[in-house]
Design brief:
Largest sheet: 11 strands, mixed
Number of strands: 17
Shape: elongated
Number of helices: 14
Radius of gyration: 24 Å
Helix content: 25-40%
Bound molecules: NADP nicotinamide-adenine-dinucleotide phosphate, L-homoserine
């Protein structure tokens, strides 16, 4: 049997501790599958004295990730710290520069510096694997980077944040508050160290930026993403969506348009009978539309220690099985030097249906005024309804819900501005885009 693959792990939190446990518990099976043992020889985290429920007694401890990357006797550096800068970024760069293979689950880092890191990995002819960075345990990176080679992708979209999907599901199904659901997601190890990254949509944006590059062969453009999180979604929206035959999901969508690539992350209403609407809890789903294969939907665990460690382990096993000096698959599917410039499509040109919830003073003529603002902007309405029913007590503000036929973002913004200019609105309008999956 070949020499053991020596692995150093930086970060022993939710994912790191799961990874150590799995590698230790499955040592024999891994050695058989990979043709060589996988041995953890070095670890680091912030607090050496913390009980992590794992046995690291025979493993060399390093005081910092940077020192581990620079000095440890390892073949692979595994980064499970997180963050776009600081210890994670510095140690990954140091490890690649030293000629070590790197495995990371860090989407924030890849979204910020993926092209630079890919360039170093390609120069050094080492692997930089990151399956766990997008959609947890779902093998979507391999699918896009390897299995769909030759296909022209037209759209990639999906539920890419387990924390948000968990929150939206429990709010809808159990009537729990947003804050309680978030606390539970944190307790279960789904949320980022700073959960604002989850609920404000940044984490989905990081993942989407990576998928966009793999799908379209363009530079990573995380700063070019239209971004809305789920913090403004109320239980009222969730119930209204259900009444209309929809469910609300935080989707990341990247699609090729005539004017460039549209990248957007926002709460989205999806038809209740679509497969993606049935994806609940921490589960993620990624759909890929391409010309040769057609439509592919991958569904699976999107966060959590074991699910994520499963993807990290797959990446380590790929390195164990690879031969030194072998031709490498480009880190981002296309060689870093050949990635095309990213051309952004204007969000105002986005076309689709819209849900608009307005709270209005109970006054004669409001319905007519709203309908006129829509018509003046060329928007055709699929439905307009009042909640509660029109016979409820007069003089209290009323909720009016509109669903539009396909229109443009530009028209909707102009119509909403026109409504705002009237003096009957109470509070801010809520606008939620509607997405209709093709096959699913
Ligand atoms: P976590 O539980 O917060 O663990 C982070 C680990 O990094 C901890 O062990 C911490 O040390 C260590 N650490 C932080 N700063 C450090 C520093 N400056 N020097 C050395 N060690 C440092 O995070 P996680 O949930 O395991 O996530 C790790 C990575 O995986 C992140 O990039 C995350 O986005 C990604 N990810 C997570 C999931 C998930 O479901 N959790 C899924 C996919 C991807 P201490 O333990 O001593 O504090
Ligand atoms: N915080 C992330 C999520 C972890 O909830 O999806 C997985 O990337």
């Amino acid at each position: 049997m070949a020499d053991a693959l020596k692995v150093g792990i930086a970060g022993l939190g939710t994912v790191g501790a799961s990874l150590v446990r799995i590698i230790q518990n499955r040592a024999n099976e891994l050695a058989t599958t990979c043709g060589r043992a996988i041995e953890i020889t070095a670890v680091t985290a912030r607090d050496r004295s913390r009980d992590r429920g794992i046995d690291i007694s025979g493993i060399t401890w390093f005081d910092t990730p940077e020192r581990l990357a620079a000095e440890a006797d390892i073949d692979v550096f595994v980064e499970l710290i997180g963050g776009a800068s600081g210890a994670a970024a510095d140690s990954v760069k140091a490890a690649l520069t030293r000629g070590l293979h790197v495995v990371t689950a860090n989407k924030a880092l890849l979204a910020a510096s993926g092209v630079e890191l890919a360039r170093i990995a390609e120069e050094k002819s080492v692997l930089l694997n990151f399956e766990a960075a997008v959609a947890g345990g779902i093998p979507v990176i391999k699918a896009l980077r390897e299995s769909l080679t030759g296909n022209t992708v037209s759209r990639v979209y999906g539920i890419m944040n387990g924390t948000c999907n968990y929150i939206l599901t429990r709010m809808e199904k159990e009537g729990l508050s947003f804050a309680d659901c978030l606390k539970e997601a944190q307790r279960l190890g789904y949320a980022e160290a700073d959960p604002a990254f989850d609920i404000e949509g940044n984490d989905t944006a990081h993942k989407l930026a990576i998928l966009t590059t793999l799908a379209f062969g363009t530079q990573i453009a995380a700063d070019e993403i239209y971004l809305e999180g789920i913090t403004n979604i109320s239980i009222e929206d969730i119930h209204a969506a259900a009444d209309l035959g929809y469910r609300i999901k935080l989707l990341g969508v990247a699609q090729l348009t005539d004017s460039g690539i549209e990248q957007r992350v926002h709460p989205t209403m999806v038809p209740h009978d679509s497969v993606i609407a049935q994806v609940d809890g921490v589960t993620n789903a990624v759909a890929i539309e391409s010309d040769i294969l057609g439509e592919l939907l991958m569904v699976g665990p999107g966060a959590g220690g074991d699910a994520t460690a499963s993807a990290v382990l797959g990446d380590i096993a790929d390195i164990a099985k690879s031969s030194p000096g072998a031709q490498r698959v480009p880190v981002l599917g296309t060689p870093a030097a050949s990635l095309a410039p990213y051309k952004r499509a204007r969000m105002q040109s986005h076309e689709g249906g819209y849900f608009i919830r307005l709270t209005v003073a109970d006054r004669t003529g409001v319905f007519a005024s709203i309908a006129a603002c829509m018509a003046e902007n060329g928007i055709s309405l699929e439905s307009i309804m009042q909640r509660p029913k029109p016979d409820a007590a007069t003089d209290t503000p009323k909720t009016i819900i509109l669903v539009t036929h396909a229109t443009t973002e530009d028209s909707v913004r102009k119509a909403v501005d026109a409504i705002k200019a009237e003096n009957y609105l109470v509070g801010e309008p809520q606008v939620i885009r509607i997405e209709r999956p093709k096959a699913f």
